[in-house]
Specification:
This is Dihydrolipoyllysine-residue succinyltransferase component of 2-oxoglutarate dehydrogenase complex. The protein has helices at residues 189-196, 209-218, 236-244, 248-251, 266-269, 279-294, 307-324, 331-344, 388-403, 477-492, 495-499; strands at 2-6, 16-22, 29-30, 35-40, 45-49, 54-59, 66-68, 72-78, 107-110, 120-126, 133-134, 139-144, 149-153, 157-163, 170-172, 176-184, 297-305, 351-353, 356-358, 365-367, 369-371, 374-376, 379-380, 417-421, 440-444, 448-454, 457-471. With 501 residues, the protein is α+β, with helices and mostly antiparallel strands. The strands form 7 sheets. Strands 17, 20, 23, 24, 25, 26 and 27 form a 7-stranded mixed β-sheet that branches. The protein has a 4-stranded antiparallel β-sheet with strand order 1-8-6-3, with no helix packed on it. The protein has a 4-stranded antiparallel β-sheet with strand order 5-4-2-7, with no helix packed on it.
Length: 501
C-alpha cells in the first residue's frame, strides 16, 4: 500500500517552504518516524518524519524545490523490503558522470532548505574536497540563507566525486551541489571516517563551522591553522590568529565594485576588505524596510525610575535563585508590566489583517535576542498566565537555544508583542522597528543614574528611557501613551502588579 509524505503544517502565516535535504533515497527502507528530509522556512529547519515503515518510493519534490503546505513530497510503500534503488527517477539520470565507477550508485547532493519564498543561497564553505570518502550524514558544506547557515549532510556514504557549486557561488533552490559516487550503505561510515578527517588537517574531529567559514573567507586551509579546541579542533579564534600573521596577502586584492561608489584612492583600496552580505543580513535589511513601508510607525517615549524594581530584586534574588534555580532579572518585571498594560490597551496586542483588526485574547511575548547569526525573536506563549519564575526560566532557555541556533520554527512564530532590550549593549535611547504583523514593540535601554527633581529636591535615581514603537493605523496616540504610562507605573511601584492596578 502506498503512503503519501506531505509537507507538515509550517506555522502561522507561513505558506511555503524549501526542500533542504533528503536523508533517504528511493528504494531505502525506512522506519516509522525516521527522518526523511528537512524543510526550511523563515528562520528554522523543519524535519519531516516518515509516517509509516516501508520503502521510500518516488521523491516528488527534489532538494531545492519550493513547496506549499500539504504539498506531496514523496511516496512510501508500506511494509518491509527495499525496492530496487535504481528506481529513483529523480536521481539516476542526473549522476551519469561521477568519478566513481559505480554510476548506478551515485547520489546527487542538492541545495538544502532555504526558507519561505527564498529562491537562492550562497555556498559558504566546503568541508570536503573531491576524492574524499564521506560517511552518510557527514557534513559536506555550509550555505548562507535567509536566517541561518544551512549545513548540508551527505545523503549517502561514498566518495565525493564532483563539486558543481564552488565556494562563494550563488545557487538556486533547485540546483545540484555535488555528486556522491559509489554510494554505499550507512554501515560503511566507519571506513569513511578516517579519510574524511584529512580535510581537517589530519585530525579525526570536525572543526567549528564558524571556523570553517572564516577560513574560507580568509583563504586559509586547515593545515595552515593550529587548532586549540578539544582534540585539536580548529576554533574561530584560531583562524583569526592565523589570519593576522602571514595570511593577509590572500585577502588583499579587493574584488571590483559591483555598484557605483565614490572614487577611492589606490592606496586606500588596498587596505579595504570586501565581504559579500550574508543571506541573513540581506533578509534583515529587506524586512526592516518592508516594515517601514507597510506600517505607519510612530514612537512615543517615557522614562522609568528603576529604584523600586532594583530594591525588590536585590532583596529577593538569592531566595529566588535558591527556590527556582534561575536568576531573577529585569526582563520578568518588564514582561509582567507589559502584560498588565496590554490588558488595558488591547489594540497594542492586535494586528491588521486586510480590512479587519484581529484582537488577541492571549499574549505571546517575543523577546528579541542578538545572536552571532543575527537578530531572532523567540516567543514565550501565553505569558499572561506565567509567574515570574516561569518567565525567567523561559527567557533563559530560549536565549540559550537562540545562541546555539537550535530554535524551532514554532518557537519564533505567533508573537503578539515584542520586547527589545538594547540596554544590554549600552543603548541610552533608540526607536525600535515593528516586528510585523505585530502592532507594538517596547524598547528597553541602559539604566543610568541621573539627577531627578523629586518632592522639590534633586536626588540621584537609576533611570531608564522606554520607547514604544507602534502602528499608528491601529493604535492611536492616546492608547500608546496610556500603555507606556501603565508600564512605567507598574515598574515604579511593583506592588501594583500583585494587585492588578
Amino acid at each position: 500500500m502506498s503512503v503519501e509524505v506531505r509537507v507538515p503544517t509550517l506555522g502561522e502565516s507561513v505558506t511555503e517552504a524549501t526542500v533542504a535535504t533528503w536523508f533517504k533515497k528511493p528504494g531505502d527502507a525506512v522506519a516509522v518516524d525516521e527522518m526523511l528530509c528537512e524543510l526550511e522556512t523563515d528562520k528554522v529547519t523543519v524535519e519531516v518524519p516518515s509516517p509509516a515503515a516501508g520503502t521510500l518510493g518516488e521523491i516528488v519534490a527534489a532538494e531545492g524545490e519550493t513547496v506549499g503546505v500539504d504539498a506531496l513530497l514523496a511516496t512510501l510503500s508500506e511494509g518491509k523490503g527495499a525496492a530496487a534503488a535504481p528506481k529513483g527517477k529523480d536521481k539516476a539520470p542526473a549522476v551519469a558522470d561521477p568519478v566513481d565507477a559505480n554510476a548506478a550508485d551515485a547520489v546527487d547532493v542538492m541545495v538544502p532548505t532555504l526558507g519561505e519564498s527564498v529562491t537562492e543561497a550562497t555556498v559558504s564553505t566546503w568541508f570536503k574536497k573531491v576524492g574524499d570518502t564521506v560517511a552518510q550524514d557527514e557534513m559536506l558544506c555550509e550555505l548562507e540563507t535567509d536566517k541561518v547557515s544551512v549545513e548540508v549532510p551527505s545523503p549517502a556514504a561514498g566518495v565525493l566525486s564532483e563539486i558543481l557549486a564552488a565556494e562563494g557561488s550563488t545557487v538556486e533552490a533547485s540546483a545540484k551541489l555535488a555528486v556522491i559516487g559509489g554510494a554505499v550503505a550507512a554501515d560503511a561510515s566507519s571506513d569513511a571516517q578516517a579519510p574524511s578527517s584529512q580535510g581537517n588537517g589530519g585530525k579525526d574531529v570536525s572543526n567549528a563551522p564558524s571556523a570553517e567559514k572564516l577560513m574560507a573567507d580568509k583563504g586559509l586551509s586547515a593545515d595552515q591553522v593550529q587548532g586549540t579546541g578539544r582534540d585539536g579542533r580548529i576554533m574561530k579564534e584560531d583562524v583569526m590568529k592565523a589570519a593576522a600573521a602571514p595570511a593577509p596577502a590572500a585577502t588583499a586584492p579587493a574584488p571590483p565594485a559591483q555598484t557605483p561608489r565614490a572614487p577611492v584612492a589606490a592606496s586606500d583600496e588596498a587596505r579595504e576588505e570586501r565581504v559579500k552580505m550574508t543571506r541573513l543580513r540581506q533578509t534583515i535589511a529587506r524586512r526592516l524596510k518592508d516594515a517601514q513601508n507597510t506600517a505607519a510607525i510612530l514612537t512615543t517615549y517615557n522614562e522609568v525610575d528603576m529604584t523600586e524594581v532594583m530594591a525588590l530584586r536585590n532583596e529577593y534574588k538569592d531566595l529566588f535563585l535558591k527556590k527556582h534555580g534561575v536568576k531573577l532579572g529585569f526582563m520578568s518585571f518588564f514582561t509582567k508590566a507589559c502584560v498588565h498594560a496590554l490588558r488595558e490597551v488591547p489594540e497594542v496586542n492586535a494586528e491588521i489583517d486586510g480590512q479587519e483588526i484581529v484582537y488577541k485574547n492571549f499574549i505571546h511575548m517575543g523577546i528579541a535576542a542578538g545572536t552571532p547569526q543575527g537578530l531572532v525573536v523567540p516567543v514565550i506563549r501565553d505569558v499572561d498566565g506565567m509567574s515570574f519564575a516561569d518567565i525567567e526560566k523561559a527567557i533563559a532557555e530560549k536565549g540559550a537555544r537562540a545562541r546555539d541556533g537550535k530554535l524551532s520554527m514554532a518557537e519564533m512564530q505567533g508573537g503578539t508583542f515584542t520586547i527589545s532590550n538594547g540596554g544590554v549593549y549600552g543603548s541610552l535611547m533608540s526607536s525600535p522597528i515593528l516586528n510585523p504583523p505585530q502592532s507594538g514593540i517596547l524598547g528597553m535601554h541602559k539604566i543610568q543614574e541621573r539627577p531627578m527633581a523629586i518632592g522639590g529636591q534633586v536626588v540621584i535615581r537609576p533611570m531608564m528611557y522606554l520607547a514604544l514603537s507602534y502602528d499608528h493605523r491601529i493604535v492611536d496616540g492616546k492608547g500608546a501613551v496610556t500603555f507606556l504610562v501603565r508600564v512605567k507605573e507598574a515598574l515604579e511601584d511593583p506592588r501594583r502588579l500583585l494587585m492588578d492596578l
